[in-house]
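Section 4.2 – Deliverable D4.2 (structural model, holo form)

The reporting period included a commitment to supply a predicted holo structure for the target in complex with flavin-adenine dinucleotide. Inputs used:
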Amino acid sequence: MTGDGVLIVGGGLAGLRCAQTLRKKGFEGTIRMVCQEPWAPYDRPPLSKAYLTDRTDSIDVSLKPDHWYMENEIELILGRSATELQVDSKRVVLDDSTTLSFDQLLIASGSAARSLPALEGFENVHSLRNLADARRLGQAIGDGGHLAVIGSGFIGQEVAASALGLGGQVTIIEAMSTPLAHILGGEVGQLIGQLHTERGINLLTDAKVESARGNGRVEELKLADGRRVACETVVVGIGVLPSTEWLQGSGLELDGIITDTGARTRIPGIFAAGDLTRSFDPRSSNFRRSEHWDSAVRQGRAAALSMLNEPVPPPGLPSFWSDQHGSRIQYVGHAELADRAEISTETDESGLSVRYLHADRLVAALAIDEPRVIAAAARAIEQTDGSNTEEERSDHELQSKS
Ligand SMILES: Cc1cc2nc3c(=O)[nH]c(=O)nc-3n(C[C@H](O)[C@H](O)[C@H](O)COP(=O)(O)OP(=O)(O)OC[C@H]3O[C@@H](n4cnc5c(N)ncnc54)[C@H](O)[C@@H]3O)c2cc1C
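Output (structure tokens):
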């Protein structure tokens, strides 16, 4: 150790959880966080939900109060971006040409929304990744009118539900024939699609946006099959790309940094956590991207433990949640390992639960407004493969409060 301590690039959830764990475990060295945005780490899930529809400015999304950083001696370098990693000299260069040396580095610069080239340059086209995006989009959908959401992933669906809740007219445009079929299976994807159509959202499937008509603002989207969608506001929700441009030339993988279960990259002393990783998953023996809250928390903590040479618990079950139209969708496990899905709609009028099975063994579960189903499924899956730690179980509980 040279005294340069730990440098964290990216002031998001993964970065914060690493810093927090280091201090909790008694690390006394320097911790600095380079934050591209002008504010301290905040929670992103509310941005497509309550924050987007809030008209009272009363929702606080910060993950920690300002005094917490002072008390824990964590230096936030706000409004600055890393532009280069110099591996041999263990330095990171920032956009104002400052160089910061480190003993250990956590790369946690997250991901950025994919754009649609045909829609670039139009002022009423939005993506949703950060607070500034949410403020801008909140104003646009608050004015009502017709919103076109391109992509029916979870963020697109949440934005659609929020806009509908504000009284707007909404069309979702999805290139696949069923929303989320590649993640949850066709039958479940169809049921989730119905959540929207039953409430009056127009869901267009097998629909690819080809071009837009309008002068500075999109007035109409033209689909590849000739269909047209008139709109006042457009949201592009077609997934994310890892924010790794600044790592060019470093030798690290730009399409998702490969890490082991301890968040170690292939370069000693350099760790990566959160949305930009391709982390090893022992259950599927694969390196997987996971752009969910629970992975960022787990990997941020794993990075801190690895930096301290402490044992890292095996990764728990992947999980996520999504809030739409006043309902909570929750998921746990590995649906991609399943050979069939059992769907039950009988438990409650609005509730739905799905058990994903592989050779009759439960491997994943999804439930709408059935939190107990998810908790029981997580326990059952854990019992068969002994995974989640106590700490990870408490994260599942925290998630449901986020
Ligand atoms: C609108 C929205 C809603 C979501 N809802 C849910 C949900 O309901 N359930 C769920 O499970 N997950 C949800 N997620 C996903 C979850 O929030 C992310 O997986 C999590 O925030 C990832 O954390 P991270 O630390 O990897 O990245 P981020 O939280 O994205 O933080 C990365 C930070 O690094 C900064 N940065 C980028 N490049 C640089 C650079 N060169 N130098 C310095 N800083 C840089 C970025 O500006 C950003 O502030 C949602 C995400 C969004 C955007």
